């Protein structure tokens, strides 16, 4: 299965269904099943800011108990859209989504669908870019 490593708290926000777009500086042509891997780094500054703090707290999380170094969810990568001044992404996204990503011009919004958290995270080292995990879960 292909996976992507995402820094915390963004990986958990995706796993919880609070974030449907992952914003990246690069495009991908890949579509299909995707594992969400929580990297080893936690951006504690963001965890203490709103709306991050209250959304994480709603699910029982703080910067001190976010999972790291594990595949925590699976879903589908359904699309990849370039951010341009002609398209107002706020028409596509709901809730805190705009606050949870970097929608600067020239970046890419990866649309994630059908994301389900794993009941037992799978320890994994993670890598840059899209990478393959040997087990299918």
> What order do the helices and strands follow?
EHEEHHEEE
Let me know the number of strands: 6
What is the CATH topology classification name?
A: Archaeosine Trna-guanine Transglycosylase, Chain: A, domain 4
Unreliable stretches, pLDDT < 50, 5 or more residues? Answer: none
Distance between termini?
8 Å
Oligomer: single chain
Shape: globular
Q: CATH homologous superfamily - what is it? A: Hypothetical protein
Radius of gyration: 14 Å
- Which class best fits the helix and strand makeup? mainly beta
Order of strands across the main sheet: 2-5-4-3-1-6
Q: Indicate the percent of residues in helices.
A: 10-25%
- Per CATH, the architecture is Roll
Largest sheet: 6 strands, mixed
Count of helices?
3
Relative strand content:
35-45%
Protein name: 2-oxoglutarate dehydrogenase E1
InterPro entries: ASCH_domain, PUA-like_sf
Pfam family, one: ASCH
Domain ASCH: 4-61
Structure characterization notes:
It is a single chain. The protein has helices at 10-15, 44-47, 52-58, and strands at residues 2-8, 21-24, 32-42, 70-82, 108-123, 130-132. The chain starts with a strand and ends in a 5-residue tail after the last strand. It has one domain: Roll (Archaeosine Trna-guanine Transglycosylase, Chain: A, domain 4). By secondary structure, it is mostly beta strands. The chain has a six-stranded mixed beta sheet with strand order 2-5-4-3-1-6. This is 2-oxoglutarate dehydrogenase E1. InterPro entries: ASCH_domain (IPR007374), PUA-like_sf (IPR015947).
